[in-house]
Fold:
Amino acid sequence: MNYLLISKELRPIAEKVEACQRISEADALDLYRSNDLNALGIIANVVRERKNGNYASYIHNRYINYSNICVLSCQFCAFAAKKRDAHAFEYASDEIIRAVAEALPLGITEVHMVGGLHPTLKKDWYLNLLRGLRALDPNLQIKAFTAIEVRHLARRIFRMSIPDTLELLRDTGLGSITGGGAEIFDPVVRNQICRGKETAEEWLDIHRTWHGMGGRSTCTMLYGHIETFAHRVDHLRQLRKLQDETGGFTGFVPFAFEPQTTVLAHVKPASAFEQLCNLAVSRIYLDNIDHLTAYWVSMGLPLAQVSLSYGVDDLHGTIIEEKIFHMAGATTPQQQTVATLKHAIREAGREPVQRDSFYRHLAPSAGNGTKPASAAETELICA
Structure:
């Protein structure tokens, strides 16, 4: 590490990182408060390279937002709807299965599926959907449901304990759960932006339970609304603590808040500087989570490409029909080609590699009935 390029204030933290020592919450606050963005990138890239070499990954998957009908009314959310709202939607299970079947020949390895807390969909609807997706291809990874969806299913729909619900979902085809719904863990912030949603403790406990069953999941943070730097650091602290306990998180995916069509429209969107800073600090602090994903749907691909120099080693996927961020006002494209992602990675000086749901590198020809990556490069796939 070239310490001449790092401000004196940050050098003690840089020395810790280079010595493979864990930084403190106070150190993380100092990093967030720093205006030395280039130094943050230098330090974060030490961690990135140590964990992932020069590789940057992407995934071939199909996003499904099965319904936006939800019993909650989170202030930050423009996605959720009540049944009679004009923007409410709900896909039939056979429509979802057909959409995934149409994507399989394109080479997808995962279906990523989340939705609202639907008040009337029945237990059999969810189980039959999982069975139908599993029947399409036994090697297709079904990544579905946020922790709050799992809790909703357990308490309101299945009327079973959370462990029993997770076991039933897994036995029916669920391969991994998603990291959504974490938002910011601080209870005061949650009360203002998502009153009625599960608590931080409940979110963490569902992931803890899933990890205890041998399952893996991602973790997230929604930032750039009313939270402070201290709230972000506390959020990261709780994720790092659970990872120390279970080792079940595969990657961290922070999202910048999209305020445009929400009741928090007065909030100024996170700047490029703030997004790169948040990624770099996350990479430096979360020393026990191997992968950091730049979610280009909210960032845009150009900034996500730049983030590969700020600790990021993954650009997520090739995405089509993403609804949650676009209904909140995101103006990014809803899809990318594999060739575009690979070009962005190479242009940033990294080596592109396709990964699976657990961030494991795949050979050029995936073994689950998909095309070799070279044959699918010009297809519009989905993430």
User: Anything to note?
Assistant: Residues 229-246 form the longest helix (18 residues). Residues 109 and 140 are 5 Å apart (CA to CA). The two ends are 35 Å apart (CA to CA). Strands lie at 55-59, 61-65, 110-114, 141-144, 217-223, 249-256, 291-292, 314-317, 351-355.
